[in-house]
Write a structure and sequence with these properties.
Elements (H helix, E strand, L loop, with lengths): L2 H11 L3 H5 L4 H11 L6 E5 L15 E6 L2 H13 L5 E6 L12 E7 L8 H11 E12 L5 H10 L3 H4 L7 H8 L2 E8 L5 E7 L8
Parallel strand pairs: 1-2, 1-4, 2-3, 4-5
Antiparallel strand pairs: 5-7, 6-7
Length: about 210
């Protein structure tokens, strides 16, 4: 998908997102936050924070920064954080996931929920998460990937030309993402309704920057 397609799609969905995509995706959100935010005092980045549905699940002693490319979604996230008095939310910023405006090694953990198949360049998106995450830090991704089920595989391939209209790539292959992202995936588990989505727990294998 092109960036403008993504922005347009989320502008359309911003008002109904919580109702349509809230409850069905909650299991993945909760599990991802639990894995990423497993220690006290962590600074964590959520890429594609959307309307902030995951923000209440972080530990109160964490420092959470969220970014999103949609101003409309981000405004709802800010209102949610204020309404729920989420003092652990350090900042919510309008930002492109492929061009993060943070220094190297700025976060203990990074998570991206339902984002990988909507960014224009998944390899660049993954490279930026690896860059801003500390060496040895945790990166968690929850996303839909092309199904191994023959019938679902066929349907997803047929839907692929409609990607810009339905908001994600239904034919997004995990093997290609694994190869191109450079992520060290340590665990892969089914997530959400019928296990149709996957949760990937990754360890950021890179050398610390030399100063």
């Amino acid at each position: 998908m092109e960036l403008n397609d993504t922005i347009r799609t989320y502008r359309l969905f911003s008002g109904s997102y919580d109702f349509v995509f809230g409850p069905v995706f909650h299991p993945g959100r909760k599990a991802a936050v639990r894995i990423a935010n497993d220690r006290p005092g962590q600074r964590i980045l959520e890429v594609g924070v959307g309307t902030g549905l995951s923000l209440p699940y972080f530990r109160p002693d964490s420092r959470v920064v969220g970014i999103d490319v949609s101003a409309e979604m981000l405004e709802r996230a800010k209102r949610r954080a204020a309404r729920l008095k989420l003092s652990h939310v350090e900042g919510l910023h309008l930002m492109d996931a492929e061009n993060l405006e943070f220094p190297d090694n700025a976060f203990d953990a990074v998570l991206a929920l339902y984002v990988a198949s909507v960014v224009p360049n998944p390899a660049r998106f993954a490279a930026e998460m690896r860059r801003v995450c500390m060496p040895g830090g945790t990166i968690v991704i929850v996303n839909h990937f092309l199904s191994d089920n023959i019938l679902l595989h066929f349907i997803e391939k047929r839907l692929a030309p409609l990607a810009r209209h339905i908001g994600f790539h239904p034919d997004f292959p995990l093997d290609a993402f694994r190869r191109e992202s450079g992520l060290s995936i340590r665990e892969e588990r089914p997530s959400n309704l019928f296990g149709y989505w996957k949760l990937l727990r990754c360890v950021n294998e890179k050398r610390a920057a030399v100063h």
